[in-house]
Amino acid sequence: MMIGTACSRRSISTFSCLCQRIKQTEREIVKMFEMSRPKAETEGFQEKQAPLRRGSVRILDERFIRILKIFKWGPDAEKALEVLKLKVDNELVREVLKIDMEISVKLQFFKWAGKRRNFEHDSTTYLALIRCLEEAGLTGEMWKTVQEMARSTCVITPADLSETVRILGRAKMVNKALSVFYQIKGRKCKPTATTYNSIILMLMQEGQHEKVHELYTEMCNEGNCFPDTVTYSALISSYAKLGRDDSAIRLFDEMKDNGLYPTAKIYTTLLAVYFKMGRVETALALVNEMKEKGCAPTVYTYTELIRGLGKAGRLEEAYSVFLSMLKEGCKPDVVLINNVINLLGRGGRIGNALKLFDEMESLNCKPNVVTYNTIIKSLFESRAPVSEASSWFEKMKANGVAPSSFTYSILIDGYCKKNRVENALALLEEMDEKCFPPCPAAYCSLINSLGKAKRYEAANELFQELKESCGSSSSRVYAVMIKHFGKCGRLNEAVDLFNEMQKLGCSPDVYAYNAVMSGLVRAGMLDDAFSMLRAMEESGCAPDLNSFNIILNGLAKTSDPQRAIEMFTKMKHSTIKPDAVSYNTILGCLSRAGMFEEAARLMKEMRANGFEYDLITYSSILEAVGHINGDGTYQTS
C-alpha cells in the first residue's frame, strides 16, 4: 500500500491540474520575454512574430538576466533560452559569463553548454571563465579549467597562451604556468616574443632569475622568435640582480646592435650596474648618451645617479645633479629626496638636509618614516645635541608618522654612543610595549655600551633575553658578547659562546672570529689565536685588516720581534695592506726591542705612505731611547 502511494506521488505531475500549471508557468516565462509594444503593433502579433535572431539586442534581455539571478541555472533558465530560440554558441557563453552573478551559476552554465550537441568551447570561452574564476579567487577550479583548455582540441593562439601564463603568474602558480606553457607549446601553439615575455616577467616577479636565462636561450633557439625591448629589459634586470654585470652590459650592447632602442628603465638598470662596478665615468657617459638619444631621464634614473655619486664620495656632484633635475622640471619623489637628505647628512651638511626637509611640501613630497629616520641618523652622526634628535622623534609622532623598528634602533644606537645608556634602555622597553619584534641591532648597541661600561652581567642579561625572544641571536650580537667576555677575562665563556653559535647554525662572521682571537691574544694564547685565523680562512670567512692587526699585536708583545716583522712584511705583499694601526704596532715592537735603525726606516716609510705615528708609539720610542746605555747598547732590564 505504501509502495503504491509512493508511486502515485512520483507520478503526480501527470495530473491534469498540474499539467495546466506547468503550461501556465511556460506561458509566464514566454510573456516575460515579450517586449512591450503599442497596441496597434501588437494586434495580430501572434501571426507575425519571428524568431529572435542571434546578435539581437535582446540576446541578453534584462529579464533573462533576472531569471538567472533569481532561479540560478536550471530548467527555468533553460526554458528561457528555448523561448528566445537562442542558439548556444561561443558568443552567447561569453555574454552570459559577463553577467554580474554568482560564480557557481556561471560555472554550471559553462558546464551545461559544454555538453550541448554541436557545441564546443573555444579559447575565448575558456579564458572568459578562467578570468571569472581568478576574480572569485577559486584557484583550484581555475587550474582545472586551464588544464581542460590545454587538453581540448580548441585552437590556442599565442595571445591566449600569454594571458593564461599571466593569470597563473598572478595566482603564484609559477610551476603550473611553466607546465601549461610547455604543454601547449608542444602541441598546438608556436610562442611569440610576447608569449616568452609573459613567462620571463612572471619568473622575474617570483625572483627566479636563473630560469629567465634558460627561457631566453630557448627563445633564441626557436629560429623565428626574436627578443624585443621588453625581453632585453627583463633580462638585463635579471642579470643585474644576479650580479652578472658583464652579461647585462653585453645584452645592452646586443640590443643596440639589433636596432632596438633602450628604454629609460634599461638605461637606469645599466647605470646602477656601472656604479656598482665602480665605473663612475662610464655611468656618467651613459646618462649623456641617454639624453643624446632623446630618452629623458626619469625620477628613477636620477635616484640611481644621485645614489651612485653619493656612494662614490662625489657628494657635491650628486647635489648639483639634484638641483639641475629640479630646474629641468623633473618632479622628485620621496625616495629621491630621502637619498639626497642621506648624502647631505653623511657629507656633514646637516643644514642643507634640514632645509630640504622643509621644502618637501612645496615639492609635493610627503615625508615618510625613512625621511625621519634619515634626519635623526644624520643628527647623531653630525654630533648634534641629543635633545635635537629626540625632538625630531617627537615631531615624527606628532605628524602621524609611526616610528619603525629601525627608528628605535637608530635612537638606541645614538643614545649609546652619547653614553645615554639609561635612555637607550627606556627606548628598548618602549619598543617592547609597542609589540615590536626584538631588534638585534638595538640589542647589539646596548650590549656593547654596557660592556664598555664594564656592566658585563647586565650585558649578558640582555643577550640572554634576546636569545629567549628569538630562539637564537645574530652573528654580530654574538661577536659583541664574545668580545666583552674576552676583555673581562672570561675567555672560557667567550669560547663557549662561539661554539654555541656554530651548533645553532649561526655562521660566525669576521667580527665573531676577531672577537675570539682578540680574547685569545689578550690571554697570551697566541698559538690558539693563529689556529683560529687558519680555521677562519678554511671556513671561507675572509679575514679583514683587523684580523691581522690582532695577531700582529699579539706577536709584537712577545720577546721575539722577528715573527711580528715577518707577518708585517707578509701583510705588505698581500691584498690586505697595513694601516696606521699596523705601522704603530710594529714600530712600538721595534722600539721596545731596541731596533732603532729599523724603527727609523719604518717611520720614513710610514710618512711616505701617508700615515702618522700616534702618541702611544711616540711615548714607546722615548721610553726606549731612555734605556740606551752610554756605549749605545740597549738596557734589557
Structure write-up:
- By secondary structure, the protein is mainly alpha-helical.
- The protein is 71% helix and 0% strand.
- The longest helix is centred in the first third of the chain and has 17 residues, at 16-32.
- It is elongated, with a radius of gyration of 39 Å.
- The N and C termini lie far apart (129 Å).
What about the largest sheet? none
**Average pLDDT metric:** 84
Number of strands: 0
Percentage of residues in strands: under 5%
CATH class of the domain at 552-628: Mainly Alpha
Strand pairing plus helix content: what structural class?
A: mainly alpha
Q: How helical, in percent, are the residues?
A: over 70%
CATH architecture of the domain at 552-628: Alpha Horseshoe
**CATH superfamily membership of the domain at 552-628:** Tetratricopeptide repeat domain
Specify Rg, calculated over alpha carbons: 39 Å
Number of helices: 37
Shape: elongated
Distance between the termini: 129 Å
Question: What is the CATH topology assignment of the domain at 552-628?
Answer: Serine Threonine Protein Phosphatase 5, Tetratricopeptide repeat
Q: List low-confidence stretches.
A: 1-24, 33-58
Organism: Nicotiana attenuata
Pfam family, one: PPR_2
InterPro entries: PPR_P_subfamily (IPR050872), PPR_rpt (IPR002885), TPR-like_helical_dom_sf (IPR011990)
Protein name: Pentatricopeptide repeat-containing protein
